[in-house]
Amino acid sequence: MNQKLLEIINSIRVAKGFGILQEINPSDHLRNDLGFDSFDLAELTVHIEDAFNVDVFENGIVNTVEEILEILKKQ
Question: Which pTM does this prediction carry?
């Protein structure tokens, strides 16, 4: 799960011209640490839903990698 999420995050970062991450940490903030804006978060939602069949933003905004992982674990 973590590896797939890392791949998704890196695909968005590369499209923005950012470097590839070797790892993500649960405490990583999507906006502050990963550099995502609202458009990136929308793209992230689509990719996660395609990969895991889960809408991580269904119950509100998530801010960290840990929040995403917690939602994915519940599925």
Answer: 0.91
